[in-house]
Structures
1.
Amino acid sequence: MKLFKSLISCLLVRIMRKFFHNNPHVRLVAVVGSVGKTTTKSTIVDVLKHNKKVRTNRGNFNAEFSAPLEMLGIDGPQNPRSITNWLSTIYRAYRSARQLHDINVIVQEFGIDHPGEMAAFGRYAHPDVLVVTAISPEHMEFFGNLKTVAQEEFALSSHSIVTLYNRDDINSGFIAFANSERNLSYSTEPDADYYITAHQFNHSQGYACTLTHGEQTSREFIMPVVAKHQLRIAAGAAAVALEFNLDVESVITALENFTPVSGRMNLLSGINDSTIIDDSYNSSPLAAKSALETLYQLPAKTKVAVLGDMNELGGTTAAEHRTLGTLCDPAHLSHVITIGPNTAKFLAPAAKDNGCTVTSFDKATDAVELLQSLARQDTVLLFKGSQGGVYLEEAIKPLLKNSTDSKKLVRQSKEWLRKKQAFFGKSLS
């Protein structure tokens, strides 16, 4: 089977080279980074789609076999273990590569788990723009240290015309790994090549802000987001659009109509007039810190942080969970609720040492009764946790004021619900 996978990989590389040879008009935006890829990708698509015909990957199909198929616009094999299914898929991929595609831009995530995987994408992916969202701990059981992560995430830059990197979330020492013809920064702070300045925040509307590029500053506009780190993502999307020579006004109009991706800093109405911040898609040290900072800035009387385990941190697991616990501030939080063994073992004691009230649960559904008692008027509940073995969205569901809002939660397909029912040992609606 290993030999067959190697053959499939080589065939997909040849097919993708043929696709780009036959479609020289298609420009490629590659989105990489430790966190924020999906939201960044979606925001870029939202900004570009009003002026360009855009193709983008569905969900998180961003790996060695799934990424090229998404770029070709075809489905993968029904059974990934079936040789017959893969041969059929390769045939369809080859036919797609020979065709002239009626699109202008592909916006594609590229995800990695091990060193060397990003360079493999470079065998066929030569981005017009590479966007690097962040460098932070990820899959540390394989990467070992942040320098290795940074080298891997910037590996595509040597194949790219422009690299756009998030200066706020990337250590300046790692920028040396950017190796494109032009290396540009985006930020929420001045002195970046592209930056969004936040002037005022209203929790019911979002941020009043301006976009600056070079010596040009836009008119003030409202970005309908609750977290300041979402402005960095918007700055990156604006930078891509302006690099593609879109006019500033069309970029701003798109940002004014921004809709957050499910499970990523979504504001939802909760029972008893409470407010829910749904950031349940996944978690990492940098993203969890940003989520807490967002919660602290909101003008609510009572704030509750529901924090699930952060997965795939390898040898840094204990330290990163303790660090997040030290960021739990009793001056802002009336209650910290942890879900999973790592938050219970490492985060909870650190938060208690800070003076926080902490309750720990093994599974998200175990916390529902307590959460229902805490959900009150002028209360904001933040949900932040990783995917596998956590699934905080199932603790959110019983707290929703409108049951139809469950459609806005992540992982609600029949396949996901079956998987989670097995995990929780109970039926999920």
2.
Amino acid sequence: MALTHTPVAPTSVHEGILRRQALRESAARTYARSLPIVPVRARGLTIEGADGRRYLDCLSGAGTLALGHNHPVVLEAIKKVIDSGAPLHVPDLATPVKDAFTTELFATLPAGLADDARVQFCGPAGTDAVEAALTLVRTATGCGGLLAFTGAHHGMTAGALAASGGAPDVRVTRLPYPYDYRCPFGTGGERGAELAARWVENLLDDPKAGVPAPAGMILEPVQGEGGVIPAPDGWMRRMRALTADRSVPLIADEVQTGVGRTGTFWAVEHSGIVPDVVIMSKAIGGSLPLAVIVYRSSLDQWRPGAHAGTFRGNQLAMAAGAATLAYVRENRLAERAATLGARMLARLQSLAAAHPCVGDVRGRGLMIGVELVSPHSSGAPVRPGRDSAPDGGAPAGDTGAPPADPRLAAAVRRECLRRGLIVELGGRRNAVVRLLPPLTLTDEQAEAVLDRFADALAAAERAAPHPDDPAVLG
């Protein structure tokens, strides 16, 4: 008697995998809580789940996938290494694959750094590169202090957490980061950035400020997890001048902003500065784990083994990374990100005019954030450039911004997922919807993303309780 098998419905497979994940994995899991999908196939912008649904992925592996999922040039580079019989993993030995990656990486560096640079291959994650950068500058300067900024996110290891915005450390001096919409000085615009720069200057030059001698200053050209907040170019130049005049190494964390994401190959190029150290990860591995720091040769004073790690020689990641870097450079995808990102920002800003729950729309290139606020707050949203004061700044008093609404942001994310759009949240209060589509995004795909987001925003706004609702008043 022949045995017959009852086909398993895709939904059953999907639900079973999610159920086992919830039972087996730790309470620390994050994306899985808000994105209950089981990816089984992916290409470019699109993910297909085990339940048969298709999604437009604007998370892109938290910014890792510059070329989207399974780009042909990445797959070919990986396949070539596998077919060659080359070792898949070595320590920090020289290999042809590594040499090709380093050569391509140096070809993309900002002018003024490539000719006098060293590269250190770190552990596989961006946080490992942050730790390496901190060790480097502390060794080179002999100082233990660190200058870092409010709202920063640099990773999850001890040193990276200390440099980030929510982890106190006596060696870290926390400085104000310019934030037009919620300016800490209540002005926004150029005036807010100028006051932030003056604060830094006065703090560094005041012998009674209590600032530990800084080994370096670490900053993000665009704060990602902090809410997609671009640093003003003039302020970036001030930070470069302040640090250079005081012989304090400047560390640019380009883990999320690098490889064309913001409209230039490296985000520091918007302001024209050359940092002393650049931290790189995410997209430089072409979707595989890879992290490096590139720095001025004068800082190269650590001893052999001063910063090591087992997985520094991932040949597949280096091959995928070299292919990605070359493709972005040769196809001018940074310029494409600048053009398409500007169009997406313009449409989102027009959407904001019709939705009082949208407090601010901001970003650079294809790194976009939409900050959601309480639509029933007494304060009216202040959007720099539209509701600003005559001098370009916003009115005083925290720039008049209404309270952030993280519950509404979570509702928008859920509504996006129902419509087949994957987005993530960030910001100080987790109220910023973040869009990080691949740099290969087409015009038609961009329109589809924005259409789905607009529908999701309207649905979440309609469902949001009004404060005068009897159920809310209790």
3.
Amino acid sequence: MEEAVNEKDAHHMDRKLLIDSLQNEDMEKFRDEFLDLHPYDQASFFKELDEETRERIYHYLSPEEMATLFENLEMGDDNYQDVLAEMTPNYAAEMISKMYVDDAVDVLNELEKDQVVSYLTIMDEEAAQEIKELLHYEEYTAGSIMTTDFISISANQTVRSAMYILKNEAPKAETIYYIYVLDDEKRLAGVISLRDLIVNDDDTMISEITNDRIVSVSVGDDQEEVARKIKDYNFLALPVVDFQNHLLGIITVDDVMDVMAEEASDDYSKLAAVSDMDTIDRSPLSAAKKRLPWLIILLYLGMGTASLAARFEATLEKAAILGAFITLIAGMAGNTGTQALAVVVRGIATGDLEKESRLKLILREAGTGLITGTICGILVTITIFIWKGNIFLGILVGISIFCTLIIATLAGAIIPLAMHKFKIDPAVASGPFITTINDIISILIYFSIANLFMNFLPK
């Protein structure tokens, strides 16, 4: 068995043979080798090729074979347009029509509207109609990621007739592990598994084995909520219904994995104050375009911090030693604020926040800030007294740390909660944003307290 696995791994990695067969125009050898690969490996190999070599592949593979590859191809927006432009319009349109509907919609959503219309006009009318039905759903909703390639049966039929339907529709269905039972008005009445069909007698009525305790999602539900529900219930697929409970489509676990990766990338991008990190930018200009908006906002917030510090120049002139601890206090505020932000954003993303009241969370973070502020305040007071020999300077910095950590922790918790309440992605409250806000707060606290201790500080 181990030898067989190793042979298969080596087979997967035989790129030289594939490239040689392309260069030698040996179509038969290429097809034998290439079509034996897993679609993911096909897509990985395809992405490495230059345009001239890829154009040869379009002549060697049918649109249906290319569709399987394309379903596993992960590329940026511009890359999809470039690759499709390499194909003839008829070939590209037929290829898209052979893809699972949800995957076809994902590809078309990356194109310009005139390109979408062009491909839909060329392709088979039935396939175009199925794709159009999904294209109009709002992005990032259940409707936008569902597929209509599912199997449904009626409750008033037998297992034998259901198996007949299953065998006929299985080749074009995205999954056959769940079969959905509809009533006479096409509303979702229940679900049965493939196992249910196999273990029951042929003459058993579907209504007798149907599970009517259905977990479904609405077509307008957010894709994150869909992903969370599939994760919680360990489903392989989830039905999507409208407000009258008509079955519109299903969302499979592989689509949810894509959603989770997309959402994680999106949240990380925002926490890093970058608009898009899905792909590695090919040029410094495109990278700068994505980073500049947040950097400009943070630049002006930083200027506000500098302006605030300038208002306390007189205080600094009287006690220059105060300048040594500005970065310490601002840095501690930024760190604790980012920690609280990460906890809250993760709680919102995983759904844990729904199980815990917002007030309870805020009180918990306030308690955390109180404890961390007290311990850090005491430690810094003792350290500065030993270091500088002035207990009042130590107390000043210690109290500043104490107050700053409490307020910064609360800010890190409250800001994303407020954004979530107003339907704004809480990840927008990015680390750099929270850090800059807390810089302003910490400097204000520090110098306000410093004015009270001015007579006890070294000049």
4.
Amino acid sequence: MTEHLDVFLHDDHIGVITPTRRDRRQVTFAIESTYAGAPSMLTEGFSLVPGTKADTRHASNFFGGYAPEGNHRIRLASTARIDESDLFALLKHYGLTMAGALSIRTEKPGDHVAGKYRPLSTREVIRKLEKAQRDFDLGNEPDSGRSMLPGFQPKLLLARFGEDWVYPENLAHSTHILKPSPSHRPATIFDEYFSHQIARHMGLTGFHSELITYNQTTFLSIERYDRIVEGNTVRPIHQEDAAQALGLDWTDSAAKFQNPEQPRSPSRPTAQRIAELFGSFGDGSDMETWLRHLLYNVIIGNHDAHAKNVSILHKTNEASTIADLYDAVPILNINDDPSRVGSKKIGDELSLAIGGEFNHHRVTLDHFRAEVASWGGLSGRRADSIIADTLSRFGVALEETPSVPGSSPALRDRLGYNLDRISSGRAIGKPKMPLIAWPKGN
């Protein structure tokens, strides 16, 4: 009998996964004949037709899209003694809890009973954080941890109730993502937190985050937007990222970026393709939010705003909607840091071109207008109104958001410089150093 895995959405059995014989990077997904949910409740990429098999390639890219990337995936696979490209094995070992409300379960009894939470001391949290940074294990423990989350960077998945940190065992869900400070760029988590504060002020992000220091170890704690916490009960909200919805190759780490050499390649994302995705459900306002996200990422200098850093929430009995802005990290300013003289430069290329322009320093509002015109879902007048409102909100948020000790030098000034340049219709360009304080006169 062929080995199989059961797929649950929340606690509803929706289908079965089996390995393919010819290619271990793919799996077969058969949809339960009694499935009675919405055809797109699992993904925007293919329909859940009861009693049928989903397209193998697209289903594989969808399920594989929940796996970590790069060295993170390699290390998890090594720990489980499996091949990092073996999708069935990855799902079997780490698919019990994933992003959103999807769960991949084996026949083990522990996969079908409620999980538990184990209290952690401050010392245990620090130890787990250090281990996650060193071993890329997400905090998984051999007997009770089978979780995974997309991304390259090391992180720790824990739950928090009040002020108490707890370890989620088996089917118990994490509520927070803990990011350690990377040794090669320690300011990164402080810069990201500053960005969180601005985005919250603008209404682009609703989740809570904070910088926490335990015994001289500082980390960024991020509340998961795909979890609802009621007392000590955690309920997941289902989600998928745009790379999954577009069916992009889960094994190719470059697939989430638009290709400058072949900008219209169907195997890669574009801002237009993602806009059309958001225009296909709800009342169409998510396309407007996507424009705000794009503009925000350009202003803060986030080169890494790729297709896996924008997601769709599938709320039960509600229309699908764009997720909160996340992983929006200021990067453009790093090359200007005097401490990096002689260091390898970080590229200036955007993950997704704006109006055909990939070079971050050259982007203007005219590029945004051209980009939106290609979508076909927003009038030029409405786009101009959204752009003006976003620029105004960013300016107010930047002025009113307190500086974050430990962040990159003159970060506020650099973001203010970017805002002033693009608001005036000019390209962001490269500022002369040192930067003039923003706002001028302060």
